[in-house]
Design goal:
Blueprint (H helix, E strand, L loop, with lengths): L3 E10 L2 E11 L4 E5 L6 H9 L6 E6 L8 H5 L2 E4 L11 H9 L8 H7 L15 H13 L5 E5 L7 H16 L3 E5 L3 H7 L2 E6 L2 E6 L1 H8 L3 E6 L11 H4 L2 E4 L2 E6 L2 H15 L7 E3 L3 H6 L7 H5 L6
Parallel strand pairs: 3-7, 3-8, 5-6, 6-7
Antiparallel strand pairs: 1-2, 1-4, 8-9, 10-12, 10-13, 11-12
Helix pairs in contact: 5-6
C-alpha cells in the first residue's frame, strides 16, 4: 500500500487557488519533503492529508483511506508534529507523554518514546524548564506515542541552534530506519538534503520540480563551479586563452562554470603544473539544492554571470 497518493488536488480560498492540481505519491519507509515559499500551498496540502481541511477537488488517499471521510479513524494511525504545540508548562515530561498516550488504542510505552527522543533523563522535568531543543524533541515524541505508520513533520527544526537541529535530524533518520514514512515540510535546504529521499517544490499551488535531491541537481544544475583564490595577483600571460573566455571574478576568486569538470580540471591542473603556478584553495562544487530551489529553471547563471565576466 502506498501511504500517500494524491491526484489533481485543488483548494480555493475566496475564489483564489491555494492548491492547483497537485499530484504526488509517497512510498512506504521514505521521507518526502514539501518545499516552497510562504503561501505556496504546503500547509494547505498537509492539512488536507491530515484530515483537518476539506479539499475542493481531486483524489486523496492516506494509508488507504480518504482523510476527508475517514479522518477520525485515520488519526489513530498517523503522527502529527506541528510547527508549535501548546503544552501545559507545569506538567512534567513523563506526565505530558502519559496524557497523550491515553488518546491512542495501541501506543508505545512512555519509556520507549522517551528513550527514542533522548529525554529519559528529563522525565521528571517540568515542560517550562526544557530547552528549545528538548521541547522540540518532546513534541516529536508526542507525535510518535501512538505508534504511527505515517508521521507529518512541519518545520521540525525552526528556531533551533545547530546542535539541536542535528539531534532532530538523527531522530528522523532513526525513524526511517524503523520503517516509518515521513512527510516533511522545511525551509532549510541542508535539512532536506540530509533527510529527504525525494522532494517537491511548490510555487503558487503547483509543483514546479520533483525528484531526489541528486536528480534535481542533474536536471536543473547542469553546471559545476570550479574556483581558486588569486587575490591581487594577475594570471600569467601563459594562461590558456580558452579558459580565459569563461572566467569571472569575485572578491579575489577566479571562478569557472563548466558542464563537465573532468576535462576542464585536467587542462587547468596540467597548465598549473607546467607553469609551476599554484592554485590556492582549489575547489569543485555542484550547485546547492538551495540554488535549485530558488530557481527551479536555473541551468547556467546566464545574465547574472555575463555581467561579471572578465578577461584577466
Amino acid at each position: 500500500m502506498t501511504p500517500i497518493r494524491i491526484q489533481n488536488l485543488t483548494k480555493n480560498y475566496a475564489g483564489k487557488p491555494a492548491v492547483a492540481g497537485v499530484s504526488f505519491e509517497v512510498q512506504a519507509g521514505e521521507t518526502y519533503a514539501l518545499l516552497g515559499p510562504n503561501g505556496a500551498g504546503k500547509t494547505t496540502t498537509i492539512e488536507i492529508l491530515e484530515g483537518y481541511r476539506r479539499r475542493d477537488g481531486g483524489e486523496v488517499s492516506v494509508l488507504g483511506a480518504d482523510p476527508g471521510v475517514q479522518g477520525n479513524g485515520l488519526r489513530e494511525r498517523i503522527g502529527i508534529v506541528l510547527q508549535t504545540t501548546a503544552l501545559e508548562p507545569e506538567l512534567t515530561v513523563e506526565e505530558t507523554v502519559t496524557n497523550f498516550r491515553s488518546f491512542y488504542p495501541n501506543p508505545h510505552s512512555v519509556g520507549e518514546v522517551l528513550e527514542l527522543v533522548d529525554l529519559g533523563f528529563a522525565s521528571a522535568t517540568r515542560v517550562k524548564a526544557l530547552s528549545g531543543g528538548q521541547q522540540r524533541r518532546l513534541e516529536i515524541g508526542l507525535g510518535l506515542i501512538g505508534n504511527p505508520d505515517l508521521v507529518f513533520l512541519d518545520e521540525p527544526t525552526t528556531g533551533l541552534d545547530p546542535d539541536a537541529r542535528r539531534n532532530i535530524w538523527n531522530l528522523v533518520l532513526e525513524l526511517n530506519a524503523m520503517g516509518k514514512t515521513i512527510l516533511l515540510s522545511s525551509h532549510y535546504m541542508d535539512e532536506v538534503e540530509a533527510l529527504a529521499h525525494r522532494l517537491a517544490v511548490l510555487v503558487d499551488g503547483k509543483i514546479k520540480a520533483e525528484g531526489s535531491p541528486q536528480s534535481l541537481r542533474d536536471q536543473h544544475g547542469a553546471y559545476t563551479e570550479v574556483r581558486f583564490y588569486l587575490g591581487e595577483r594577475p594570471l600569467p600571460e601563459s594562461f590558456p586563452p580558452a579558459l580565459r573566455k569563461i572566467i569571472h571574478t569575485e572578491r579575489g576568486w577566479v571562478i569557472f562554470e563548466v558542464p563537465n569538470p573532468t576535462p576542464f580540471l585536467a587542462d587547468l591542473t596540467n597548465w598549473s603544473f607546467k607553469e609551476q603556478f599554484e592554485l590556492p584553495h582549489l575547489s569543485v562544487t555542484q550547485p546547492s539544492l538551495e540554488e535549485i530551489y530558488l530557481n527551479p529553471t536555473r541551468g547556467r547563471r546566464g545574465a547574472a554571470r555575463n555581467s561579471k565576466q572578465a578577461e584577466i
